[in-house]
Amino acid sequence: ILVDNQDYFEFIPGVPEALFNEKYIPHIRIKHERYLKMTKIILGAVRQIKRKEIVVKTGKIFKRIRFDYLIIAAGSRYALPFKAENSLAVFRLKNLVKFAKRIAKAKTILVVGGGPTGVEVAGEIVAKTKKKVVLVDSKDRLLYTAPAKAGNYAQHFLEKKGAVLFLNEKVVDLTGSSGCYLTDKGRKIRADFVFSCTGICSNADSFSFYNKNKINEKNFFIVDDYLRVDKKVFAGGDIVNISEEKTAQHAQKHAEIICKNIARDVKKKELIRYTTKYLPVIISLGPYNGIFIYKKLVFCGMLPRLLKYFIERIIMGEYML
Q: How far apart are CA 88 and CA 194, in angstroms?
């Protein structure tokens, strides 16, 4: 049984590209029912978790669903440091088409955050449009957690394409309703649309009704070495307290271990420990450029972009089998 608030799977790493190409949206979405042949799909939100059942709200109706094992995989979101109609946190978007149309009308776009997502969004804009792009990041260089070579390459690419970068600076507020954004250094930036690509928040706060001892002070589910929250309750993805980059690759590894451990638990076998590994990161910069990062290894150019394209096709192809 799958409980979700939307009826499709969305390949999140493909979202930045889809925002600037509506025709690309079908390539990163697939209906749950198409690949989950033996699954009952319930659209709704979990409102209670008890020892052997959950309570789900679907519309105005509450349903009780019994379980033998429960997996919590509710992911995370970007926090908006401001409230404005023309601002968007790029994470699991329900209305890609609507936002794509609004973005198309914007002349100046502000990107807040210089991590992988912020760099990809800015890269898509400067490579595919003639819009003015302003990127603000609180660190002294882009891709701060990666080797300096990666950040320097991204900065050179964006600035060469006309983007304006303000580093060591932070957007703190939206002043009035004129689309003027204020930084902590007093700079006023006018923009027609804003992307927030910084500071992910775990969606564990949606489970505040659950045992508070299972959620830490940073709002992540506390899991043991086997990815268990409780004896028959597992959690994986961005929502858990494991110290590692919150990426799709790590979420997939969590899923593999959780499924193996449920199968082993049913057979009364010893569970498998999850060990975090450093996985490669590929960042696209428009359709013809990208950055590959693995530990201290960095290479840039067309090859990383092609790698990301083929990885995406392989992943989506698995869902379509």
A: 6
